[in-house]
Amino acid sequence: MNHDYDIIIIGGGAVGAALACALSNNNSSSSLKIAVIEAVSAKADIQPSYDDRGLSISLSSKNILDNLGLWQNISLHANPIKNIHVSDQHHFGFVRLDAASMGVSALGYVVLARELGKAFMQCIEASDNIDLLCPASVTDVEISDSTASVKVNIDGTEKTITSSLLVAADGTESRTRGMLGIETSVKDYKQVAIVSNVIPERPHNDTAYERFTESGPLALLPYTQQRCILVFTVAAADAEKYLQLEEQGFLDVLLQRFGRRLGNFSKLGQRKSYPLKMLQVEEQVKHRAVILGNAAHAVHPNGAQGFNLGLRDAAALAEKLIEAQEKNLDIGELTLLSSYLESRKDDQQRVLRFTDRLAESFYNRQVVKIIARDLVMLATDLVPPLKHRFARCAMGFWGHQPSLVCKSFLLPGQESA
Ligand SMILES: Cc1cc2nc3c(=O)[nH]c(=O)nc-3n(C[C@H](O)[C@H](O)[C@H](O)COP(=O)(O)OP(=O)(O)OC[C@H]3O[C@@H](n4cnc5c(N)ncnc54)[C@H](O)[C@@H]3O)c2cc1C
């Protein structure tokens, strides 16, 4: 059956674009023909995936981006995380990790989503096998036994394009999911993340701080030029109060919650807020369709896991699709897509459980639960096997890993080392 494309990816945000790059013929032996349909240009200020939020990129994600040939550019705007410091305001629990004692040069990196977007778009634009349709919006999708068809509106003109496989990577509010009749379960945390950046008086020394405070978890991530990216999670009902505080008032709250470890804070950047929920789809794969990234599972940002998880999914899916194409198999066939999902289930469930428990436990003010939580933190800090387990989680090395974490995809004619 002749189609316009092998794969149509709806959504060129961080995860959809990462999948396209992993399938690009610049990076792999793929000769799959791909269309990426994206509603908003990566250069636009309103691009929802590529804004100024700082993303903590795990070591396994860094490896994937490196193997895709993207890391060199991204690293110019990345700050290493050499230490992690987790603490609980007014309580005794803490956990410390450092890269050197784990035998790595960094536990992860902090990158602005905007910089990530630039690297992905450069890769897509340089790939002969990818067409980027942007700005374009999808008005309908239809799946038949042999074909996934997408009606797309480009500059006011509607046309239908066809493929063997459709990937919906259009974010938490995915409309494609609804068009495919896929149900979701949603848990509203009734929390909001306020993201900004500040300059602390003392150097951050490449340390990522996560502090559980009376108003919610607060993360300070080390960034370039001695700035720190701030992610302050508060109850949704209080969010407006914190967003409306004048600069000094907000910095005073920050100092009160975080303490004086980094001295005073100054130069507060723009504040932006994100409502937080956990979302899971009932089906991630269907005949000729895959749901990917936040469209499939959105998690609380407390563990800095959402993009990292989506990237590992994208890497594993790319691996399966390239392998299937090399064997002349049908890439939209349900058995093949189910085997991709099977390989990813453990990792996904672990991340969903971990971030959900974290989100619940740090809003719990019952004394017994606080003591239990602080004992777990202390044990993690003091007992080496627990500490190593925590470090593996933080670095994204848990469970089965996609090959792109460990080795480069080979170009035609190349042999593995
Ligand atoms: C405050 C905050 C901090 C975070 N920090 C971290 C972190 O430190 N580490 C980490 O790993 N993760 C973090 N995350 C999570 C991470 O941002 C998301 O997991 C990631 O952005 C998901 O990418 P995505 O491509 O699946 O979805 P999105 O980023 O939502 O992208 C979806 C794309 O689809 C496009 N689109 C939507 N509808 C259509 C349509 N109909 N047609 C065409 N295109 C469409 C959108 O324009 C967008 O470009 C954080 C999230 C938040 C909110």
Tell me briefly what this model is.
With 417 residues, the protein is of the alpha+beta class. The chain has helices spanning 14-22, 59-67, 71-75, 113-125, 175-179, 236-244, 247-258, 306-326, 334-361, 367-382, 384-394, 403-406, and strands at residues 5-10, 34-37, 54-58, 79-81, 83-88, 94-98, 108-112, 130-133, 136-143, 148-154, 157-168, 184-200, 207-213, 216-222, 228-235, 265-266, 272-281, 285-286, 289-291, 297-298.
Protein model, in words:
By secondary structure, this protein is an alpha+beta fold. It has a domain at 5-78 and 113-187 and 279-364: 3-Layer(bba) Sandwich (FAD/NAD(P)-binding domain). Helix content is 34%, strand content 29%. The protein contains twelve helices and 20 strands. The strands form three sheets. Strands 5, 6, 12, 13, 14, 15, 16, 17 and 20 form a nine-stranded mixed sheet that branches. Strands 1, 2, 8, 9, 10, 11, 18 and 19 form an eight-stranded mixed sheet that branches. α1 (14-22) packs parallel to α4, α1 (14-22) packs parallel to α8 (306-326) and α10 (367-382) crosses α11 (384-394). The protein is globular. The protein starts with a strand and ends in an 11-residue tail after the last helix. The model is unreliable at 408-417 (pLDDT under 50). Flavin-adenine dinucleotide binds next to α1, β3, β9, β12 and α8.
